[in-house]
Amino acid sequence: MWNNSGIVKVPFLQLKEHPSEEATTVDEALYGMEVLVREKTAGSGWVSVETAYGYQGYAKAEGLERREWNIRKWQKLPKYVVVSPSADAYEIPGYQNPYLLTLPRGSLVGSAVDEGQAGWQQARLIDGRGVYIRKSQLRPLSETHYSVKKEEEILRESLVRTALSYLHTPYRWGGKTPWGIDCSGLCSMVYLLHGIYIYRDAKIVEGYPVKEIPVCAIKPGDLLYFPGHMAMYIGYLQYVHATGRMGQDSVTVNSLNHMDSNYRRDLASTVTAAGSIFG
Asked: Is residue 229 among the annotated active site residues?
């Protein structure tokens, strides 16, 4: 049986602007994420999908689990989220054993009753297989959710720490993994890893939790917007962002202070807005 949901069953699934391999990648959905399947493109092997945070694109149907029984079982399972840059899933625990697949940060796996051997967590894949992943690479999904009002300072510090963990990740248009990421991919993934869905593109959109604030009121964990670009403010006039600029081509830290060696005038002089989920 089939329904209008799909679960990503590959490490990451590219969402394209049009149903073609040659089309621009607009986003990536990660293993274990549920998407809404809007329509099937007749005879092409592509489907139109929408993510939980409202982003739309075309994906290869073969990258999605569509069987209703498997989807229902998956929806009922408590989840772990991969918090290390990547995590190998093993059929038998032990680094010397072959691994079945490698999952990027932000992927979801199902919880299993058996905790596994020391240092290893047993988990469930979408097809029901049991695997073992290092405990240090996982966190229960429930523990990624913060109370914005009650834990503001803790959340701000954690957002900055998570953003900085992506330092030196290569730039990839439409990317959202430690294997390649773009500016809005970085900011949206940092928030997603804390259980918060923000808009995927470099603009503030009504209906999402980021609200515009005065640039002079910005604090660590808030967002900076530029024409076609965005970054996370980390304090002391510094910000972290994914840039495709020649010579950087990665997640890096730059400054708004013209006295600093990492100052970028092209960005500092074109700030269009600041946004925050706080307040």
From this structure: yes
145 is catalytic: no
pLDDT digits (tens, 9 = 90+) for 81-103: 999 999 999 999 999 999 999 99
Q: How far is CA 89 from the centre of its chain?
A: 19
- Distance separating alpha carbons of residues 37 and 273, to the nearest angstrom: 34
Which residues partner with 140 through β-bridges?
Answer: 80
Active-site option among 168, 187, 216, 241: 241
Single out the catalytic residue among 18, 183, 194, 216.
183
Q: What's 170's DSSP letter?
A: B
Q: Contact at 8 Å (CB) between 132 and 121?
A: yes
pTM: 0.92
What single-letter amino acid sits at 219?
Answer: K
Decide if 216 is catalytic.
no
Please write the tens of the pLDDT for every residue from 42-91. 668 999 999 999 999 999 999 999 999 899 999 999 999 999 999 999 99
How many helices (H) and strands (E) would you count in the chain? 4, 22
